[in-house]
User: Which sequence fits this backbone?
């Protein structure tokens, strides 16, 4: 598995990954195009045998002193093999800020477990942040 920079050429693979990974939270097409093209966005893909098996994006906010992990997903067939952790580390490194934040559904045990193992702590709860009314945990890590 290799971590590489992603580009607009990965749009179709990213759409498929989003649908498989996020179901009701999958980003609309416009957001996927934006994440693959907007300046300053960190976009990384995990590639195995030439295929995208994971994706992460980061949004650096140096003037605020932190950046956001905007999304991270691993193809269900490739999960629990360290790919999510590798994408997270790579994205943290590329953000170039001292502190990283992210949001996660309160019910997303797999992702919360990964973030806690990687040193993230809960700093806030955003009530009814998701479309279906579920709260988001805001987690933070000093790098
Ligand atoms: C969250 C996600 C990216 C993790 O990817 P992954 O490649 O499976 O994660 P890793 O193999 O690197 O696991 C890292 C650690 O996270 C934790 N973890 C990952 N999946 C887990 C699960 N299903 N249950 C419990 N802990 C889990 C474990 O501590 C794991 O370490 P270990 O395997 O040594 O025990 C993946 O589950 C995913 O794509 N989920 C759907 C999309 C999503 O929810 N993204 C996050 C949105 S905030």
Assistant:
């Amino acid at each position: 598995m290799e971590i590489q920079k992603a580009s607009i050429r990965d749009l179709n693979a990213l759409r498929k990954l989003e649908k498989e990974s996020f179901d009701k939270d999958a980003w609309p097409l416009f957001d996927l195009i934006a994440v693959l093209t907007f300046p300053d966005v960190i976009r990384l893909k995990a590639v195995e045998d030439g295929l995208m098996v994971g994706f992460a994006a980061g949004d650096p906010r140096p003037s605020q002193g932190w950046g956001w992990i905007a999304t991270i997903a691993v193809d269900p067939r490739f999960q629990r093999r360290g790919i999510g952790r590798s994408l997270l580390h790579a994205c943290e490194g590329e953000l170039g800020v001292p502190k990283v934040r992210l949001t996660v559904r309160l019910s997303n045990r797999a992702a919360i477990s990964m973030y806690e193992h990687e040193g993230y702590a809960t700093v806030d709860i955003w009530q009814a942040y998701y479309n279906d009314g579920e709260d988001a945990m805001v987690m933070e890590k000093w790098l």
